[in-house]
């Protein structure tokens, strides 16, 4: 009988990931404090968290909001991205990265990712710049920062804003400085699955006081920091964080450095253990990344080098062995119906607005080879697993080796999904 768990064998991995979200008496006491205070709305706890999180990522200002999606939208508006403008970004990301410029009446322009990572390729950014380009939104995928030296240099050369989508980067540092504080603005998410969470929530970081004030105004109904309560200066929205969320996030933030260190140490074990397994390619480690948050332990699966085993078969096998593994996105963003239908009669800005009637972006014919390849090859082990013990990490390595040894049997597995 095969030793593979998918064929009835004993699972090789002995994992006991913590129940997520992690919480203890710290969160309980903090929530009760807010509850009993009667101050549930935006107040001292939110302000304390904004200051603490900005300090943690080494930014001068932090502006909280209801979620990470709103954070990117507000950043785009505060950055002055105008109607018909182009914003260069990656297609391998969550929809919010591209929908945020649309909410600012701008047009997302997708460029390819690097072959060896799932981060935007700086060379492709420069090739895509036109007179309409106003900003770049790099995504630090899985907690691995983009090449911010190159991206910032390109932005400076062409007078572009840089808005970092740092939704995976709580604690990540580039050359000793926190991600999200490397460009003009950076945005974070505290949604349920994230390494720091309050179920929902987001924050915008910046070193620029004017941008911080604009972001605050847009999240606070268009008010100014010096005006009266019913004086409104901008068309803003009500996107404020509550005291309950801030209380949870303060507790989560205190726990974060320890979690970052554990994930980093465990990821190092996996990097070392998996580096020689044919068909498994881990992402290169850039020495300029002085700390990484590891939202995923990510790797590429090469079907040909894994004796013809399909990635879907591998994922089914590794799940059966007890290792939760995410297959990544089902397609690049430009193949979503949102962008495909924009070329077939969709009305309204920015897809077919007067600013782009003459030359709308042709998403329907777009094909970015590295992004398309990542759709077929990317895999990510969930961040909760990375909070396990050293022995559990070694059992993951042993599991990969076990599956590799039985690749011939696995290749015969039918019902590819």
The beta-strand count equals 14
The coarse silhouette is: globular
> Distance between termini?
24 Å
Spatial ordering of strands, largest sheet: 1-9-8-5-4-2-3
What percent strand?
Answer: 5-15%
Q: What's the CATH architecture of the domain at 25-252?
A: 3-Layer(aba) Sandwich
Using the coordinates above, name the CATH class of the domain at 25-252. Answer: Alpha Beta
Task: Determine the CATH topology of the domain at 25-252.
Answer: Aspartate Aminotransferase, domain 2
Biggest pleated sheet: 7 strands, mixed
Alpha-beta content class: alpha/beta
Outline the structure in words.
The chain is of the alpha/beta class and 417 residues long. The chain has a domain of 228 residues: Aspartate Aminotransferase, domain 2. Helices cover 36% and strands 13% of the residues. The chain is built from 13 helices and 14 strands. The strands form 3 sheets. A 7-stranded mixed sheet has the order 1-9-8-5-4-2-3, with helices on both faces. Strand 6 and strand 7 form a beta hairpin. The two termini are 24 Å apart. The mean pLDDT is 94.
């Amino acid at each position: 009988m095969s030793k593979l768990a998918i064929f009835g064998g004993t699972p090789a991995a002995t994992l006991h990931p913590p129940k997520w979200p992690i919480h203890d008496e710290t969160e309980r006491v903090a929530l009760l404090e807010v509850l009993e205070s009667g101050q549930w709305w935006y107040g001292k706890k939110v302000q304390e968290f904004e200051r603490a999180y900005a300090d943690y990522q080494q930014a001068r200002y932090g502006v909280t909001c209801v979620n990470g999606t709103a954070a990117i939208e507000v950043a785009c508006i505060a950055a002055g991205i105008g109607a018909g403008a182009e914003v260069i970004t990656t297609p391998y990301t969550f929809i919010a990265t591209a929908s945020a410029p649309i909410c600012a009446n701008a047009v997302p322009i997708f460029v390819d990712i690097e072959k060896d990572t799932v981060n935007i390729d700086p060379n492709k950014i420069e090739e895509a710049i036109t007179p309409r380009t106003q900003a770049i939104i790099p995504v630090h995928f899985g907690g691995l920062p983009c090449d911010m030296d190159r991206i910032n240099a390109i932005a400076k050369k062409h007078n572009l804003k840089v808005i970092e989508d740092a939704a995976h980067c709580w604690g990540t540092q580039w050359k000793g400085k926190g991600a999200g504080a490397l460009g003009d603005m950076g945005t974070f998410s505290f949604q349920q699955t994230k390494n720091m969470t309050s179920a929902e929530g987001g924050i915008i970081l910046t070193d620029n006081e004017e941008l911080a004030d604009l972001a605050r105004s847009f999240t606070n109904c268009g008010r100014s920091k010096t005006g009266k309560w019913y004086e409104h200066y901008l068309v803003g929205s009500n996107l404020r964080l509550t005291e309950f969320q801030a209380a949870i996030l303060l507790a989560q933030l205190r726990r974060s450095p320890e979690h970052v260190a554990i994930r980093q140490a465990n990821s190092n074990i996996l990097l070392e253990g998996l580096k020689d397994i044919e068909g498994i390619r881990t992402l290169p480690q850039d020495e300029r990344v002085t700390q990484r948050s590891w939202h995923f332990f990510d790797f590429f699966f090469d079907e040909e080098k894994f004796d013809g085993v399909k990635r879907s078969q591998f994922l089914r096998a590794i799940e059966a062995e007890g290792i939760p593994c995410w297959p990544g996105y089902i397609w690049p963003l430009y193949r979503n119906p949102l962008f495909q239908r924009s070329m077939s009669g969709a009305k309204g800005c920015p897809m077919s607005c007067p600013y782009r009637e003459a030359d709308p972006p042709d998403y329907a014919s777009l094909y970015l080879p590295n992004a398309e390849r990542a759709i077929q090859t990317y895999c990510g082990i969930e961040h909760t697993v990375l909070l396990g013990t050293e022995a559990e990490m070694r059992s993951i390595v042993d599991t990969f080796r076990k599956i590799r040894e039985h690749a011939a049997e696995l290749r015969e597995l039918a019902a590819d999904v």
